[in-house]
Amino acid sequence: MNKKWEAGATPWLRRHQPETTWSAEPSPVQCMFCGENTVKRSASDREQDPGRLELHCHNQLCDAHEMVLLVKRDGAGADCRADVRALHLLDEGALDVHAAFPPETKSYSMANLIELVADRGNVVERRMRKAPPVKN
Ligand SMILES: [Zn+2]
């Protein structure tokens, strides 16, 4: 098996598990938290995004039910990704998420839910959106 990966290439796990499923995965991999071979691609994993994997652990004794594996540095443009930059801001203490986005309890109408589902196609684009060019 080819052990090489370059920025922008399909991650190995997507070749190993070509489909996302809601049920048990026939080719699970080892969970980084509990150590069981119970991890599969999450149903929310987006194939179009090569720098981010969304994972699900099927072990009922493991609390790591949903995980994100994100490439923070790849020698290409990973550090320009919106999600990577947000993590850096959080780590540096420069972004207080609770102040910027206060927790709220929201109830959705059917029209809101349809709108949310229709917007899912933009998720990858939002994740990967790069910073605007710096003006001199
Ligand atoms: Zn686990």
What's the helix and strand layout?
Layout: H1 12-16, E1 29-30, E2 37-41, E3 52-57, E4 66-70, H2 82-92, H3 97-100, H4 110-118, H5 123-128
The structure holds zinc ion (ZN).
Zinc ion binds next to loops.
Number of domain modules: 1
| Helix fraction bin | 25-40%
- The ordered string of helix (H) and strand (E) elements is HEEEEHHHH
Share in β-strands: 5-15%
Class computed from helices, strands and strand pairing: alpha+beta
Task: Give the total of beta strands.
Answer: 4
**Gyration radius, rounded:** 17 Å
Strand order of the largest sheet: 1-2-3-4
Largest sheet, in brief, is:
4 strands, antiparallel
Average residue-wise pLDDT: 88
Count of alpha/pi helices: 5
Shape descriptor reads globular
The small molecules bound here are: zinc ion
Please report the distance between the alpha carbons of the first and last residues. 47 Å
List unreliable stretches of 5+ residues: none
Explain how this protein is built.
The chain has one domain. Helix content is 26%, strand content 13%. It is globular and about 45 Å long. By secondary structure, the chain is α+β, with helices and mostly antiparallel strands. The protein has a four-stranded antiparallel β-sheet, with no helix packed on it. It binds zinc ion (ZN). Zinc ion binds next to loops.
